[in-house]
Amino acid sequence: RSFSLTSTQDAGNRKWSLEGPVDVVGFDVARVNPLLEATSDLSTTRFLQYAGEIPALTRLDPARVSIRVDLMDGSPVRTLRIGGPARPGQLCATTATGREGPVFLVPEAPFAAWLRPPRMRGDLPDNVFAP
Fold first, then answer.
1. Which residue, 73, 84, 91, 123, is most buried by CB atoms nearer than 10 A?
2. What's the confidence (pLDDT) of residue 94?
3. CA pair distance 125, 110, nearest whole angstrom
4. Mean pLDDT of 52-67
5. What is each CA distance from 20 to 5, 29, 33, in whole angstroms?
6. HSE-CB of 97 using CA atoms within 13 angstroms
7. Do the bridges between strand 65-69 and strand 103-107 make them parallel or antiparallel, or are there none, so unpaired?
8. Is the bond preceding 62 in cis, omega lying within 30 degrees of 0?
């Protein structure tokens, strides 16, 4: 599932809102600022590769989460793709937009809440057999 957010500046505070009609039940836009803070100061503990074909075991194609940032200053679009776990507490990630490029590790904690897609109306509950 994908959706877009747009921001406005209000009295020094950045406010986010969903762009266009989107069916994401219970999505809290307050989760956006912590995510952007984590990605703006992102660092890696280890590169798994600097170049070459991205291995399937990284779960980066398709990614579990893709974060695309379009800045208003005209700078190039930036994309961060988050994939599967590499070791406890760390996930595979890349800034490549294709099937080749760098793969590195990022901490799981800032992205944990984003690894599940938002619920839509009509989705089954997580445990359909729960009493």
1. 91
2. 95
3. 25
4. 91
5. 9, 14, 20
6. 7
7. unpaired
8. yes
